[in-house]
Amino acid sequence: MEQQSVMTHPDPEGPNASPDQKRPKTFPALRSLGGIGFTFLIALIGYFLAKVPGFDHVGQLACAIIIAVVYRQIWGYPEKIRAGVQFSAKKLLRFAIILFGLKLNIDVVFQRGLGLLARDVGTIVFAIGLTMLLAKWFKADLSLSLLLGIGTGVCGAAAIAAVSPILKAKDEDTAIGAGMIALVGTVFAIAYTLLRPMLPLSSVQYGIWSGVSLHEIAHVALAGAPAGTDALAIALLAKLGRVFLLVPLSFILMYWMKRKNKSQGDAGSTAQIEFPWFLIGFIIMSLFNSYVLGHSFSIPAHAMNDISFITTFILTMAMIGLGLNVSLKDLRAKAAGPLLAMAVTSIVLSALSFFTM
Questions:
Q1: Which residue among 43, 177, 339, 341 sits deepest, i.e. has the most Cβ atoms within 10 Å of its Cβ?
Q2: 306 lies in a domain?
Q3: Residue 349 contacts by C-beta under 8 Å, 6 or more apart in sequence?
C-alpha cells in the first residue's frame, strides 16, 4: 500500500516535478498555523458566547467544546489543517496543565488544609470507585467512565486532560469526558446556589461541602461566592487539596497501567507508557506559586488574573482540538452509560458529603 501511494503521489519537491506541483516549503507551517488559529477562533467564539445570559452559567470551556463537536458533525474534520489542530490538542494541552499549577498553593494546603485533605482523599477514592462500579453494572464503556470518575473526584476537565496521556485514552473520550464534566458540574453548581438558603449549614460548612464535592474550581467558585468570602475561601481551600492530589494519583495510574500491561504480557505497551513530564512542570509552577511568589517577589493581582485567563483560554483551545475528534454517531450509545454513572456518582457524593458535615 505504501509503494502504491508513492507511485500515485510523486514527490512535489522532486527534480521532475512540474511547477504547479512544487509547493512552498512553508506550506506545512502555514497549515499548522491555520489549525492553531482555527482552535483560537472557536475558543474566542466560546468565550463571547459564555458572556450571553444563560450561557454564562455554562462557561467558555463547555461552550467551545459544544461548538467544536457541532462543527465536526456538520462539516467534518478539518483535514487540511490537521497538524495545527493536533498541536493544540496535544502540545497546548500539556502547556495549559503546567500553567494550571499556578492555581495551586501547596503551602496553604499543608498549613490549613490537612484535615480537608483527608476528606479530599475520600472524595477521590469514592468518586472513582463508585463510577467504575456503576459503569460495570450499566455495562458502560469503562475507559470513558474512568476518565469521568477521575474528573468527578479530582478537578474536572483539567484532571481528565492530565491523566488521558497516562491512560492512553482516545482523543474523543477525552473531549466528550471534558464536555460532560463541564456541563454536569455547572448544573450542580447552580443547584447548590439555589439550595443554599434552605440548607441548615453555616457559611463555612457550606463552603467545605462545595469544595469537597463539586467538580471544577470554577464550579466551586460559582457555588461558594454567594455565601460570602469565608465560605468561598474554605471552599477553594478544600478544592485545592483535590487539585494537589492529582499528582500522586497520576503516578498511581502510571504504576497501575504498567502492572496491567505486564500482566497481559504486552511488553511493548509497557514500554510505550511515557512519563508525564508536563506534571513535573505542574509541580514546579505550584512550588513557584507557593514559596516564591509573595516571598521573593510579587506579581500584581491583575497580572495573575490575566495568567489565569490565558491558562483557561489555552485549555479551551486544546479541548477544541480534541472535540473535533468526536463523532456523535459513534458515541451515541457509548456515552449514555458513562454519563449516567457519573451523574449518579455526583448525586451520591453530594449527599454523602452533606450528611457528613
A1: 177
A2: yes
A3: 123, 126, 127, 130, 152, 213
